[in-house]
Each structure stands twice: as C-alpha cells, then as structure tokens.
Amino acid sequence: MEALRKYLQEMPQLATKLLERLGEVMEEDKSFDYNNAEEMRLAYKEAQQVALERINEAKVPYYALTYPQTFFKCPTCALEIRGAYYEISNPITMNRGMFRVRSMHEFLDHGQPVYTEPIINMSDTLMGDDEHHLDVKKLAKILDGLPIPDDVMADLQAGKA
Ligand SMILES: [Zn+2]
User: Fold this and answer.
1) Is 158 within a domain?
2) pLDDT tens-digit profile of 36-72?
3) What is the whole-number distance in angstroms between the Cα of residue 72 and the centre of ligand 1?
4) Which of 29, 59, 117, 134 matches a 20 to 30 Å C-alpha distance to 100?
5) What's the CA-to-centroid distance between 44 and ligand 1, angstroms?
6) Would you say residue 132 lies in a domain?
C-alpha cells in the first residue's frame, strides 16, 4: 500500500490552496483592504475558484477537513490532530466521501491501514476491540475518473487494506 500512501500524502487540502491564492492577491495588490468585509468576501470567492481550477488542472483529488474545531490525540505519536473527517473529492467527477481523520492519520503517518479502538461500556468495563479499516473500495470509487499511476491503481484494486 506504499504507492497509495505516497499518492494520498501529496493530496492538497482545499483550505491551503485557497490561502495560497489569497496570499498572492494581497502580494499583487498592495492596496487590498482586508478589513473591508465586502472586498474580503469577493477575494475569498475568487480564491476558492482559482484553488479549484488549479486542483482541476493538476487532476488530483483534494480534501477538506470537517469539524476543524475538534481534536483527536494520537495514542501512538501523541500528536493532536485537527478535524473529525477528511472529505475527499474528485475534481473531475465531483464524487466525494468522508474518511475518519484517525484512519487517515494512521495510514498516512504510521503506514497502518487498520487500527483498533477499545469498546468500553457504561461501567467502564472493556468489552472488546473495534477494528477500523481504511475503506479502500470507497476510496477507489471516489478516485475513479482521475489519471491514477499504475502502482497506485494496483493498491486500490487490492481492495480492503
Ligand atoms: Zn500518530
């Protein structure tokens, strides 16, 4: 799954591309007034469009984080990770789907396509383990229609990680 992992590590985040464009606009137009709400709203709208155009041209999937105000602390590396889900989108087909942030972190940062979570009941008793697999089939469906490198395609076709 190394090819798929590397491919997904390079996947751009929409918000990052958007901020990149906003930075360019402010750099180009020194009179840009970011305290002006209307000017800011229009610049934001333009930046989003340009960011999507660039992603579209690159023919790569992109992601947005949902619930960016939430954090999860990784039990392996103790990193605090923002968001609840990655919403991964295909800019060509507009197919999209949600993947848990923990699933993505385990795979992208630790190379683990599976992780287990303890199931604890109301009286704090351990009832077993809940296994979460990165849903590679779902990912393959979303990415369908993009020019995928052969080695990444092989990982996608291998199915459930
Ligand atoms: Zn970690």
Assistant:
1) no
2) 999 889 999 999 999 999 999 999 999 999 998 999 9
3) 10
4) 59
5) 33
6) yes
